[in-house]
Specification:
By secondary structure, this protein is mostly helical. The protein is built from 4 helices and no strands. It has a domain of 34 residues. 67% of the residues lie in helices and 0% in strands.
Length: 69
């Protein structure tokens, strides 16, 4: 147990404590208006990033099944 506590003490000394500036953490949310077009582009990009690779795999599933190992 003494070895564990000594190793833990060395780890605590090796990593300094994280101090966060209060000004950065207490800032409120920015009020930025996003147009409908920007929202639509964002949603299309988001859905395509997830659905295009999934669709590719599903459309080529028979090729993956018949692949020799």
């Amino acid at each position: 147990m003494a070895l564990f506590s000594r190793a833990l003490g060395l780890l605590r000394q090796a990593r300094p404590p994280q101090v966060m500036n209060k000004a950065w953490s207490s800032g409120g949310a920015k009020n930025t208006n996003i147009s409908g077009g920007e929202q639509a582009v964002g949603l299309v990009v988001l859905f395509s990033v997830f659905l295009v690779p999934s669709g590719w795999i599903l459309s080529h599933l028979e090729n993956y099944k018949s692949r020799p190992e």
